[in-house]
Amino acid sequence: QVQFVESGGGLVQAGGSLRLTCTASGGSIDSIDGMAWYRLAPGKQRELVAVVAKSGTTNYHDSVKGRFTISRDNAKNAVYLYMSSLKPEDTAIYYCNDLWVASAPNFDSWGQGTQVTVST
User: Fold this and answer.
1) What is the dihedral sign for C-alpha 51, 58, 70, 93?
2) Would you tell me how many other CB atoms lie within 10 Å of the CB of residue 52?
3) How far apart are CA 55 and CA 87, in angstroms?
4) pLDDT in tens, 5-21
5) What is the CB-side half-sphere exposure of residue 20 using CA atoms within 13 A?
6) Does residue 70 have a pLDDT over 90?
7) CA of 107: how far to CAs of 38, 40, 46, 65, 100, in Å?
8) CA–CA separation, 114 vs 120, rounded Å?
9) pLDDT band at 119 (very low <50, low <70, confident <90, very high)
10) Would you say 18 and 117 are in contact if contact means Cβ atoms under 8 Å apart?
11) Which residue blocks in the chain are alpha helix, DSSP H?
12) How far is CA 60 from CA 2, 13, 64, 89, 118, in A?
């Protein structure tokens, strides 16, 4: 089973930018059609932030459209999330996963995530 490790989070001021990296191990993301970034904010449910298909097609949560960019590098077995014009409401722990696998009922296999904190 492919496992994912997220990195690149940190503390940034509103309006700033960060690039998150998701590195896969135990398998190749080349076999995964949809790779996704999710986030979990205090007091809220985990939400799907962005998806990138093998074809390169991307989709985004309305709240991040125009500010976040998801990409994948199958050769490096990695997925990235470039975040710009960050807002305090983007503060959350960010996770990556296989979109299909993570959409299964009662799915609960997540990595450690990477904390993003946006200050005013």
Assistant:
1) negative
2) 24
3) 30
4) 999 999 999 999 999 99
5) 32
6) yes
7) 13, 15, 12, 26, 10
8) 20
9) very high
10) no
11) 99-102
12) 23, 22, 7, 16, 20
